# Entry
Amino acid sequence: MSKMKLNLVATALVGAVTFAGSALAADPLEKIHAAERTIHKAAAKSQTKINAIQEQTTELMFEYRDVVAETEINKVYNDHVAKLVAAQNDEIKSLEDQIAEIENTKRNVVPLMYRMIDMLEKFVNADMPIKLDRRVARVEKLRATMINPNVSTSEKYRQVLEAYQIEKDYGTAVEAWEATENLGGQEITADFVHVGRIALIAQSKDLKSAWVWDNSTRSWSKLGDEYLKDVTLTIRMARKQAPYELIKLPIFAAE
# Structure
């Protein structure tokens, strides 16, 4: 065989070997790349799952914190409500006790008011007849009020005390008024004046006659003319028509 043919054969063999080697080397490399691609896909899927799990975990953590916070708030609020309920129960018990006490007081105070009205009536009848018609009417009104269901017990008691206060004030007041009274056996319209409960005096409108109430005899006694001027002055002072000054009036000794 010639030298040229040998070279061609050698070259062909080298090419074949080189091609075969390239073919053998390319196959494992492709497998490696395919495995890497598979690994990358699996890693991407895993990362996606991890991200989803992380997100869910974060959400659950926030929910947990919200639940813990709400539970704490509910606990504090429930404790607060429990204290309120306890306080309200105590208040209800106190009110029930007070109502029971009020009912008991009402049972005791009603008989007391009737006794007070009876005593007031006796006092008015035994006292000087100062504005007697008004005082008698006041006592009658108290008795009517006592049986009026629309008037509370407290208001009834207030009116009884008010009547006592009015009676008390008669003892320190100086008042004058006009009325018609049986004086000296005649019905006479006269000016009346009382100086506390010291004196109750009447004077005719013409200023010529005067009478004084004698509580021991329960009757009117005629006064001498020496008292007329002082009686007139007393009436004027009571009506604030003259300044207060010393006067001379008949005074009955205390019994």
Q: What stands out?
A: The mean pLDDT is 84. Helices lie at 3-126, 132-146, 153-170, 228-238. Residues 3-126 form the longest helix (124 residues). Residues 214 and 220 are 6 Å apart (CA to CA).
